[in-house]
Write a structure and sequence with these properties.
Layout: E1 3-10, H1 30-47, E2 57-65, H2 73-86, E3 88-99, H3 106-115, E4 119-125, H4 129-135, H5 141-154, E5 158-165, H6 172-183, E6 189-194, H7 202-209, H8 217-233, E7 237-240, E8 243-245, H9 252-258, E9 263-266, E10 271-274, E11 277-281, H10 285-293, E12 299-304, H11 307-319, E13 325-326, H12 327-333, H13 336-351, E14 355-358, E15 361-364, H14 366-370, H15 372-380
Parallel strand pairs: 1-2, 1-9, 2-3, 3-4, 4-5, 5-6
Antiparallel strand pairs: 6-8, 7-8, 10-11, 11-12, 13-15, 14-15
Helix pairs in contact: 1-2, 1-10, 2-3, 3-5, 6-8
The structure holds iron/sulfur cluster.
Iron/sulfur cluster binds next to loops.
């Protein structure tokens, strides 16, 4: 049976974090949450009629947001039951839910587990109350620590912690302290990002007027280099630029994205990638609900990817992972002539030490990982 990943976007949070540019609304009332859930069900019931979605097996389901842990466990059970009407679930289906510590307690995460969730992705971001306040997070250190202490007891097979570095006035020692703190709980998976934000978020103004308070690019590289070594010593595999896992605990849902696998995204602002076609739902909640109510498709953007940009994107997505990309894969997917142009670029990057060539496989070197965005730009040009 042809495999598929499914992403369910839940766009509500307790309040907006100061760096966030995800599609999320500070709405906590249950009526809105339930109305939205019903609208997404409606969208699913339409989409499953599409020929390309018939007879698919879900290998991963990801409840992301927003803050899906604002949902009640019975809502999650309802969502999973609803999906099971239309799709078979693979026997090893990975069902991830993003969780913010201030929205759950032991009982709630236990009930999510019973509803079928088998992986939690916990938005910690920092163990330092100063940084939590700066980022505008709703969770306190106490709530974070409580959740991490409970999670082992609830026996989630897989769970992950998100952390952010390169925060204002963050010293190297403070960053090291963050990592030592998280290691106390032995998370099977860690996602580590540097702080980035778009001109649309409140932190942008702060950064504009205080450019000198953030760690420099050299310091950022030092922080990241250190964390790679520290986590490798603890047995973590650096399997994607921002992701580290204990063996077997990689996020299958995200691996599917990086391997150019197909996925269906439902809910406001969700992206899909099906049969070489990329699609996006409207980013406006009001518009999403209105369109569904009027019986209209919420898709507002579609493109059939042409071979050339897709080739570059495909290389970049694969290079994000430790597996990298092989020449035989590229030749099987794309015209030889176009592949050869990109291979010249990869060869050059490998001579410069940013990429390692092993047989017919190319993957990022340690030096390349630290400047990955520049490398990717080079491949796109
Ligand atoms: S909790 Fe996540 S989605 Fe919600 S505002 Fe904060 S960063 Fe954005």
């Amino acid at each position: 049976m042809k495999q598929l990943s499914l992403y369910f976007h839940f766009p509500f949070c307790l309040k907006r974090c100061r760096y966030c540019d995800f599609v999320s609304y500070p709405r906590r009332d249950r009526y809105t949450h339930l109305k939205y859930k019903e609208a997404v069900f409606q969208e699913v019931s339409w989409r499953v009629n599409e020929e390309m979605l018939r007879g698919r097996e879900l290998s991963t389901i990801y409840l992301g947001g927003g803050t899906p842990s604002l949902l009640f466990p019975e809502d999650v059970e309802d969502i999973l039951n609803y999906l099971q009407h239309f799709f078979a679930f693979s026997p090893s289906v990975e069902i991830t839910m993003e969780v913010n510590p201030e929205t759950v307690n032991r009982e709630k995460i236990d009930s999510f587990r019973k509803a079928g969730v088998n992986r939690l992705s916990i938005g910690v971001q920092s163990f330092n109350p100063r940084f939590l306040r700066f980022l505008g997070r709703s969770s306190s250190l106490e709530q974070i620590e409580n959740l991490l202490l409970q999670i082992e007891k609830v026996r989630y097979p897989y769970w992950s912690v998100d952390l952010i570095y390169s925060l204002p006035w963050q010293s190297f020692e403070e960053w090291q302290e963050e990592i030592e703190q998280v290691l106390i709980y032995h998370p099977p998976h860690l996602s580590i990002y540097n702080l980035t934000f778009s001109p649309l978020v409140p932190l942008y103004q702060f950064a504009k007027y205080h450019p000198g308070v953030f760690p420099s690019p050299e310091e950022e590289a030092l922080y990241f280099e250190w964390v790679i070594e520290r986590l490798e010593k603890e047995g973590y595999k650096h399997y994607e630029i921002s992701n580290f896992s204990q063996p077997g605990a990689e996020c299958q849902h995200n691996l599917n994205y990086w391997r150019e696998g197909e996925y269906l995204g439902v809910g406001v602002s969700a992206w899909s990638y099906l049969e070489g076609r990329r699609q996006k739902n409207t980013s406006s909640l009001k518009n999403y609900l209105k369109r569904i109510e009027e019986g209209k498709n919420p898709l507002t953007f579609q493109e059939k990817l042409e071979s050339y940009p897709k080739l570059a994107e495909d290389i970049i997505l694969h290079l994000r992972t430790e597996e990298g990309i092989t020449v035989s894969y590229l030749l099987a997917q794309y015209e030889r002539e176009k592949v050869e142009v990109k291979l010249k670029c990869l060869e050059y990057l490998s001579q410069e030490g940013f990429i390692i060539k092993e047989g017919d496989r190319f993957y990022l070197s340690k030096k390349g990982i630290l400047v990955a965005n520049q490398i990717f730009q080079e491949i796109l040009d």
